[in-house]
From TrEMBL:
CDD domains with a match to the protein in the record: MoeA
UniProt keyword Cytoplasm present: no
Role played: Catalyzes the insertion of molybdate into adenylated molybdopterin with the concomitant release of AMP.
Lineage summary: Bacteria, Pseudomonadati, Pseudomonadota, Betaproteobacteria, Neisseriales
Protein's name in the database: Molybdopterin molybdenumtransferase
GO molecular function: metal ion binding; molybdopterin molybdotransferase activity
Length: 399
């Protein structure tokens, strides 16, 4: 059996982003993956400005409490006249600071009498001032290649005047299930049949990742039909994902079909759930075969398939995998097993600064309900047990 980390490393090493790029208007680039490095064209802030409504004052010693008001500056106006010692101007958030400003005093800490300003609090040099380029300097990296253009990233690009961005085309993924025992939800079941759950959980998950997803349906246990469907899918997709048909001893129509028209490496992984797992290609299209058990498909999707799909989609390496944190176990395991195990768990805050991991019941690889309740997958290394109070590694599932 192959170790989990060895398999993950091999998957990442063997797959590269080969997507085409397109240049889009900023408003159409939301949630796409940036295919260029963006550099700052302007400093941020672009000029010295006020961080709040109040008064810009000139007090070189920091000892004055009374000033003469000489003007008023709003956002969008210019500040050409420098302040002299003991002078102040009424100023608003985002407005440029006049030369010689030493601090901005919030309006709540002041009183006025005509053109006299009285300050009733200590004045710290530089307070409430946003200085030119203190956040970003011209030429500094603004957004790295591979950044997902979410709300914050698009706002930052817009703040620098970028009207168009070069992004990757979405990764095209087609999803199949395999097996004569599978039936579409809504249809009548015959003896020995079950409803297809894997395909629907995969379709939803892949859409959440921002990929371009298509439904290939259920492949019957028939070599000719399977080969034709996979060949057609490979011709119009970057990735094909199937579930079922990866275990030793199962009908090998899927394996035969892929090997006739492409290449396949089948592996037995030292993980639970999810021992059977395979990957290969049909031409330029990547192929991944997940286990047939719903929970095994859920676990291997999140722990093995997610990193490689994110890499193929062009995302930054630091966002390939689920976020990993350490927390205290509020459970114990009875015995060690020879495979690395991923348990479905929930996280609870029991006191300030303390998060504990609680084990969900029914950890069987066929029991999908726990996946809907889980906050995370708790990693238990091969040959290890968990005792209550131990610190364990957990991979946070998306909400």
């Amino acid at each position: 059996m192959i170790d989990f980390e060895t398999a993950r490393a091999a998957l990442l090493e063997q797959h590269e982003c080969r997507l085409k790029t397109v240049r889009l208007p900023l408003a159409e680039a939301a949630n796409r993956i940036l295919a260029q490095r963006l550099s700052a064209k302007y400093p941020s802030p672009m000029f010295d400005n006020s961080a709040m409504d109040g008064y810009a004052v000139c007090d070189s010693e920091g000892s004055l409490r009374e000033f003469r008001i000489t003007g008023r500056i709003q956002a969008g106006e210019t500040a050409q006249n420098p302040l002299a010692e003991g002078e102040a101007v009424r100023i608003f958030t985002g407005a440029p600071l006049p030369p010689n400003t030493t601090a901005v005093v919030m309006q709540e800490q002041t009183e006025t009498d005509g053109n006299r300003l009285l300050v009733n609090a200590e004045i710290q040099a530089g307070q409430n001032m946003r200085l030119k380029a203190e956040e970003i300097e011209v030429g500094q990296e603004l957004l790295a290649q591979g950044t997902k253009l979410n709300m914050a990233a698009l706002g930052l690009a817009a703040s620098q005047g970028y009207a168009e961005l070069t992004v990757y085309e979405p990764l095209k993924v087609q999803v199949f299930s395999t097996g004569n025992e599978l039936v579409e939800p809504g249809h009548t079941l015959s003896d020995g049949q079950i409803y297809d759950a894997n395909r629907y959980q995969l379709l939803a998950w892949l859409q959440e990742l921002g990929l371009q997803v298509s439904d290939g349906g259920i492949l019957p246990d028939d070599l000719t039909q399977t080969e034709a469907a996979l060949a057609a899918a490979a011709g119009q997709s970057d990735v094909v994902i199937t579930s079922g048909g990866a275990s030793v001893g199962e009908a090998d129509y899927l394996k035969q079909a892929i090997e006739h028209i492409g290449s396949l490496a089948m592996h037995t992984l030292a993980i639970k759930p999810g021992k059977p797992f395979a990957w290969g290609h049909i031409g330029a299209c990547k192929v991944f075969i997940l286990p047939g058990n719903p929970v095994a498909a859920f676990a291997t999707s999140n722990m093995l398939l997610l990193p490689v799909l994110n890499k193929l989609a062009g995302k930054q390496a630091r966002h390939w995998q689920l976020p990993k944190v350490t927390a205290k176990a509020a459970f114990q395991t009875k015995k060690a097993i020879k495979r690395r195990e991923f348990l479905r768990v929930v996280l609870e805050n029991v006191e300030v600064g303390e998060t504990v991991v609680k084990l969900l019941p029914n950890q069987s690889s066929a029991m999908l309900r726990t996946c809907t309740a889980a906050d995370a997958l708790c990693e238990v290394p091969a040959g290890k047990t968990v005792s209550e109070g131990d610190y364990v590694s957990v991979y946070l599932l998306p909400n």
